[in-house]
Amino acid sequence: MPVVPSPLGILPFAAIKLAGYTLAAGSIERAYAREAGPPVSAQPMVMPLLFGFVRTVLGIASGTALTIAIAVFGIGNASLFALMLPIRFGEWLLLVWWFYERRHPRGLAVQQAFLGTLWSFLLDVPAWAAWWFTPGRFYWC
After folding, report:
1. Were both Cys, which of 16, 38, 69, 119 would link to 127 (CB 3.0–4.6 Å)?
2. Comparing C-alpha atoms, which of 63, 41, 45 is closest to residue 112?
3. Is residue 139 part of a domain?
4. Is residue 2 in some structural domain?
5. Domain region containing 81
6. pLDDT, tens only, 7-37
């Protein structure tokens, strides 16, 4: 009988992803600032928390849709990770372009999307662990 993580586990999962993506936005900001030269203003190009929030919501929405599609079509877990790679890269590319590259063209979108994709996979470890170990798991038969 399979064990399903707690529905409440989405809260620590989302909190870890939000914190990690907000940190990533700060890193992207610094990369774009380095390419631009001396800052014109002390204001950030993008509010890191806004970027982190949008990335978290987009990731949870696409992850949920992908999980449902895999369940419906009976695809194995290995396929899940194979499909997540291009989806995550596309999400990062879209958001880096939307929040940074389109306003401040530097040619860094692909590089930052690649680094963001790796960061997403690294954040999966603590995020999924937090979800799995949140009290309230139940058995599904």
Report:
1. 16
2. 45
3. no
4. no
5. 7-35+45-131
6. 777 888 899 999 999 999 999 999 988 876 6
